[in-house]
From TrEMBL:
The keyword Chaperone does not apply. It comes from Pelagovum pacificum. This is Aminotransferase. Keywords: Aminotransferase, Pyridoxal phosphate, Transferase. InterPro entries: Aminotransferase_I/II_large, AspAT/PAT-like, NHTrfase_class1_PyrdxlP-BS, PyrdxlP-dep_Trfase, PyrdxlP-dep_Trfase_major. Its cofactor is pyridoxal 5'-phosphate.
């Protein structure tokens, strides 16, 4: 029987760069002592108080169908959070609750593109972006950056990449690079999108993990709220990755379109999970700071290890729960280095090539193990890199 070409072409075939992660998991499941620094999964799980609120809601009977757009209380609370963070008055009608940030991105792309239209995104990129674009029957187009520029897109690259495009996906704080876009970069993004009459899909799921500079949403810049769909999530800010609570915020008429899509796809998310999300948001910034604190602390561990050698370099670790390491001095690609590191040291990192061509020669390290294990892993990683470079020089 014939199968859908749309579904089979989502990943465009070929290797997806996640072989190291999968092999590390198999090794760990077999009992090998692997230090996994691959995915952005908190080592400290969802706070017990949030789980207690979820349990109480479920036992209290909120287990039936919930409003497809999200419960009124949760939408209002998210809108209030966005208003406070952006300075742009936001109403509940401009917010729709989704099954995580990924579902928000999928819905947003359907809301602003038609089949065959082009959607641009900045390389390096979160791995699902091109596949999600294809899943919406749009055409992906990369906007290249350079490590030497801190992986910041230039005005020229933005203008060229957005020519004829319907939308641009931006992500700050950035996964995988840890870059936090300054106002000037965001203004250039806004100018290019306005000139091309393109939407901005702003992935802001790491907005509570900013270590240098400040997080600025495109929605906060003059004239951009009307063309911006902001994507948020509790996965990173509240360690609720498995609960699948996210949102998309934008013009009310576009949110109404997305609500129609939700009716025909997820039909909303469970009410007891939404109640837990409401509790989490109402706990305030103190809980968010407590959840983000380990990653801020661990970036200093990485910085200290790197300061003791000169071979492995990194960009300014400005945000998110990752660091991107430049290992080009070893003579290996990111994939070759990650494979060799796993074989020799039982340390798993993500090859930069998993996130696009512009990250070649880099590896991404997730700061998601205890401080002492991360310290050990970084010491072993830098020694391993030095050994490779020494062998290559002989």
């Amino acid at each position: 029987m014939k199968r859908s070409t749309r579904i089979r072409s989502v990943t465009a075939g070929g290797p997806d760069g996640w072989g190291v992660y999968r092999r590390a998991r198999r090794m760990a499941e077999a009992g090998e002592p692997v230090i996994e620094l691959t995915i952005g999964e908190h080592d400290e799980r969802t706070d017990p108080s949030i789980l207690a609120a979820m349990n109480a809601s479920a036992l209290g009977g909120h287990t039936g169908y919930a409003a497809g757009e999200g419960t009124p209380e949760l939408r209002r609370t998210i809108a209030e959070r966005i208003t406070a963070r952006t300075g742009v008055a936001t109403s509940a009608h401009e917010v729709l609750v989704t099954a995580g940030g990924q579902a928000a991105l999928f819905a947003a792309l359907h809301a602003v593109t038609d089949p065959g239209e082009t959607v641009a995104y900045i390389d390096p990129y979160y791995v699902t972006y091109p596949g999600t674009i294809r899943g919406a029957s749009a055409v992906p187009r990369v906007i290249p950056t350079r490590a030497e520029d801190g992986f910041m897109p230039s005005a020229e690259a933005l203008s060229e990449g957005l020519t004829g495009a319907r939308a641009l996906i931006v992500n700050s704080p950035n996964n995988p690079t840890g870059a936090v876009y300054p106002r000037r970069t965001l203004e250039q993004i806004g100018a290019a999108a306005t000139s091309a009459d393109a939407w901005i899909l702003s992935d802001e799921v790491y907005d509570t993990q900013v270590w240098e500079g400040a997080h600025i949403s495109p929605r906060a810049l003059p004239g951009l709220a009307e063309r911006t769909l902001m994507i948020g999530s509790l996965s990173k800010s509240h360690a609720m990755t498995g609960s699948r609570v996210g949102w998309v915020c934008g013009p009310a008429e576009t949110i109404a379109d997305i609500a129609n899509l939700a009716t025909h796809t997820t039909y909303g998310i469970p009410g007891f999970i939404q109640d837990a999300a409401l509790f989490a948001l109402r706990a305030g910034p103190e809980l968010e700071r407590r959840i983000s604190a380990p990653f801020e602390r661990r970036r200093h561990i990485v910085a200290k290890q790197l300061a003791e050698q000169t071979l492995v370099r990194t960009l300014p670790m400005a945000g998110a729960m990752y660091v991107m390491l430049d290992i080009r001095a070893t003579g290996l690609s990111g994939l070759e280095f990650a494979e060799a590191l796993l074989d020799a040291e039982r340390i798993a990192v993500m090859p930069g090539e998993s996130f696009g061509d512009c990250a070649a020669g880099h590896v991404r390290v997730a700061l998601t193990v205890s401080d002492d294990r991360l310290d050990e892993a970084m010491a072993r990683l830098t020694r391993f890199a030095a050994g490779l470079a020494s062998a290559a020089a002989e």
